[in-house]
Each structure stands twice: as structure tokens, then as C-alpha cells.
Write the C-alpha cells for this entry.
Amino acid sequence: MIIAHVSDLHLGAHSPEAVDSLAADVTAARPVLTVVTGDHTMRARTREFRQVRELLDRLPDPLLAVTGNHDVPLLSARRLFDPYGRHQRWIDADLDPVRRIPGLTALGLQSMPRWRWKDGRVTPRQAAMVVRVLGEAPPDDVRLLALHHPPLASPLLGRRRLLGAVRAARVDLVLAGHTHVPDVRTGVRSRPVFVVAGTATSRRVRGTPRSWSLITVERSGGVVVRERQLGSGGWHTARIVTFSAAGF
């Protein structure tokens, strides 16, 4: 099972070369699910969301996308009264979307409150949703949770309740973005695997090349994460991180 994980598009402050080539590289991987973990836009402007929609329409379906801190208007009345309206119009009307396909149950969480500028939060309702949706998935399903803010690498209100829900629901994969730097690690008991995708198309890199994460869940239960980086010759596989079935 192959899952494509993309984050930090920042359309409006993007590399045209990366945008032009990303969809073809993701499509070539033939993922069963494409996950985009937020920061679709730079400043949540309508024209930026329009550009995002055009790119998302070129990515393989089914698609699961959640909001990032850059997808909420920065300094306007809209931030107070309609912070997620443009995301709901252009990306997904459901802020906590669920995708169910054979062998996989995936849940996305909206982790950016209107009253925080950068850092995220997970509410008790959302933690309960993790337990309900993912905890009640078919026994053999891969259980995937996606949100913008990495639970292990960013200030996240409700972190303890979220990690408790992740354990209770026996989540296999937690996907996030936000930091612009790719990262892969496991939980205390080797489960779940936490994957942070790097900057896919943004000009705002953090000392690492633009990248996205190609995740393979093997029939044995092992997980392989391949970081696809953009270089002078196009996209290529850089770091590969493998978790055996025994460890996973």
C-alpha cells in the first residue's frame, strides 16, 4: 500500500518549477491515498486557494487535505468571523475529513485555531473522534491520522490527549507538516510511525531541499518512508527509513 504525503505548498510564495513537476512525480507513485497536511497557501488569499485547487486537481485521488496556520487569514475580520471559509470552499467543506478505502481508514484533523497565530491545538472532541473513527476501523486496516502540527515536534495544545487517543485507537501512521523539515520517528513502543513531510513547493525552505514523503506499508506490516527531493535533475529518492514488521 502506497501513500503520498505532501505538505507546505505555500502557493503565493512557491517555486513554479516545483509546482509544475510535483503532480507528475506523485502520480507516478500510484498512491492509494494522497495526503496534504496544510499550508496550502501563503496568506489564505482567494487567488492562492484557486492555484491550490488547480494543483490538487492534478494529484491522484482520493485526496485528504487539512488546514495549516498559513491557510487562516492573518490580519482581517475574516480571521474572527470566517477563518476556514476559503478552505471549505476551495479544498474541503469538512474540516476533519475521513477517507475509507479498502485496507485503509484515514482521518484528518483541523489543528489551527483562529486565536493562535502559529501553534496548533487538538480539542477533546477531536481526540474522541480519533478513538471513534480510527479505533473502530476494521481490524486489518491501516489506521492513519493527519494534521498540520506535528505532535512530537511543535507546541500543540491537547498533545497529551491526542497521543492518548492515538494509543487507544492503535493508530499506525501520524502524518504532519509545519516545520518545513522532513522527519521520521516512532512512538515509545514503535507504534505509530510519525512522518513529517518537508516543504514541497514553497520558497521558504529551512536548509533542506524541497521534498515530499512516499510511504509504503508492506503486506508484512513493515513501513518504508522514502523522501523524494527536488534536485537539478528533477525529483529523486533521497533518505529511506525502514521499520520492520517486528518493530512496527
In short: The chain has a mean pLDDT of 93. The longest helix spans residues 16-29. The domain at 2-243 is CATH 3.60.21.10 (Purple Acid Phosphatase; chain A, domain 2).
